[in-house]
Amino acid sequence: MTKTTIEAPIPGTFYRSPSPEEPVFKKEGDPVAIGDTLGLIEVMKSFTPVVAEAAGTLVAFHVENEDAVMAGQPLYDLEA
Prior knowledge:
GO terms for molecular function: acetyl-CoA carboxylase activity. By secondary structure, this protein is mainly β.
């Protein structure tokens, strides 16, 4: 199996769910398909989805909900 680390495309605040009342998009161990949303990055009230570009299994997040992230910072690992 191959592990791939996905990085933040832009700086901002990372969110694992669409709102505080809703469940996270994906948890560790969940299957991931191409195009699945795995989180959101917010910059000045504008939300950019973090979308899977490969299929596999989500094995780990490198950041917590509401963490500040920089462009290029590792967000999560996928195993295919």
